[in-house]
Please model this.
Amino acid sequence: MSQYPIILIPGEIERAKSALPPVPIFTEPLPQKPGTKPQKVNNTLIAVGTAVAIPTIPVVSQLTSIPGWLLLLVAAGAIAGHAWHQITTYPQRKQKHDGEVADYPRKLERYEQEEQEHQEEVKAARSPERVTEFRYKLLLEVLSQTVPHDGNDSPATRNPEEAKFGNHLSRYFPRNIHTRLTLRIPEFRHPYTPDFAYIDQGLKLYIDIELDEPYVYHTGAPTHDLGAWKDNKRNNFFNNKGWVVVRFSEEQVICYPHSCCKTIAQVIAQIIGDTSTLNQFDNIPDLQQQRQWTEQEAVEMAANKKRDNYLCQNNISNSNPVILMTSLIKTKQQVSQSLPPNNITLTRAQSRGAARARHRALNLSISPPTNNTTLSSLVSCPYCSAKVKTTKLELHKTNKCPKRPLL
Model:
């Protein structure tokens, strides 16, 4: 089961981070020990030759019609000649053997010295400093192949909570956070747009930062669930271009934005091997993992209006606690009357209907903070340019816009 944050690092970067520098190959052969001391006459060899010749001569004589005495004379001559050769070459053979015996300790010492030098070269090549240097150079080579974005005028909109998280990102990573970037998709007219992009131009390090909500707010349609093929396709698209992908759940970003930023700093430190970016997060706790939801769980979350829960929690610090708590209690009582009992299993369509009913009840009973934005103002649809209310923009883009993207 996947856990948020989902961190996907391209394979080439992973291999660069675990690669080891090459080491020299030891090719010096082991010196051979000197043979046995040579004999003036090798009696054993003469005896063997005689033992072979005696039974062989009659057979050869019978097959070739050569007299046996002649064959015996030839064999005796050959044995005698070999013995004479041994006697005459003995001084040279003894001298050579004595030289090998005398040279062996020196050759062995030289071999052991070269072997020791080779081991030291291997140790130096695999020292932590050399390994770090090698991996960093290889990483730079890999990052230089990253395919950058090809546009910066995406029409994609973002909600106020995303904008808040963008402020946190810009605070911790000034000059490195970018929005509205686009990457063209082959054979498709609508590009991909990262929610946020961390870009280090010097290192060519690109990180796609995504915020995943469990369902579409206005329709209750599940999204970003476990095994969603669109997300998998998108992740592979960015990874294949050399981008790192970091996905947070919307709840993590809203409730723990500083810890989410720390996670990004940890990913950067893991990749480039520099922990200096983590110094500013000494007092920030690590981000707790959150299990990625299934499609059915997303339907249930929509029915229970899960997103409203953490959206309201995030705004407690900016609201009067007594008034807000009173409004939430009243809202909960009103909404609970419009929902079916908990022991009834809802179909997906029924769950969405219940979610819409709860949404309508919530809108009637409490209005969440609007960050000084006029809800009734009109905005233009980025696809068809139609004028719609700000609160209806997402619904229009999702269900009504005739030119909405199919992806």
